[in-house]
Amino acid sequence: MLKFINETVDYLKDKGFNEPEVGIILGTGLGQLINSIEILKEVSYNHIPNFPTATVEFHKGKLIYGNLAGKKVVVMQGRFHIYEGYTLQDVTYPVRVMQQLGITTLLVSNAAGAINLNFKKGELMLIDDHINLQGSSPLAVRGIEQMGERFVDMSAPYNADINAKFKSIAKAHNITLHEGIYASVVGPQLETRAEYRMLKIIGADAVGMSTVPEIIVANHLKLKAAAVSVLTDECDPDNLKPINIEEIIAMAAKAEPNMVILFKELIKTL
User: Fold this and answer.
1) pLDDT tens-digit profile of 253-264?
2) Which of 56, 183, 188, 190 could form a disulfide with 204 if both were Cys (CB 3.0 to 4.6 A apart)?
3) Which residues form the Nucleoside phosphorylase domain (predicted)?
């Protein structure tokens, strides 16, 4: 993997991706942050050596480099999921690449369903902790010790200082920002009523199909990491209605301006 990473990094450096400070992963339906970036370079995933290719229709599939709030950033416009047929190593490959390019902070966004029924769709949730229900780990691979410690501490996978800043920014801008636990499942099917009940019992406040592998690798690489979920639906097993993906995407777009404020204002403080 190291050989592949070096090839990818060399290609991107040749394209002008020079020493970004912050990496950002934009989740489902969350692309408006791009409008706030002074774009210096952008490359489609399918042009980058050894990079996976986004196969989900609402994921754009571009790596973007530019200036945001006075910092050099590298942004994944569209991420990868194991439900697309990728391995956990594929899914997290871009995090390793961004770290080798120079980032020290990783900010992640996702669209998620609200398990905690005190949280409403259209609101945001700051992830304080997570539950990995994807069945494996991106670190469960031969030779991982060549890229960092095998046994990674996860007592505080989300950076407390960044989370405190997020909460302060939300308060200053009158943004509803819940704090809770994110459960990551494989997908792509959504959950049954029984599964939603299980998730509530084990302590999840929201559920999605991403983020946790990226955060695990960020901790493996000793990056400061934080993540925000846009809550796109309410997962009430006693009043469950058939899912409408178009409505989920529309809800993500509606809620996204608040997430953009959080990310922009946070980056100013880094």
Assistant:
1) 888 899 999 999
2) 183
3) 22-268
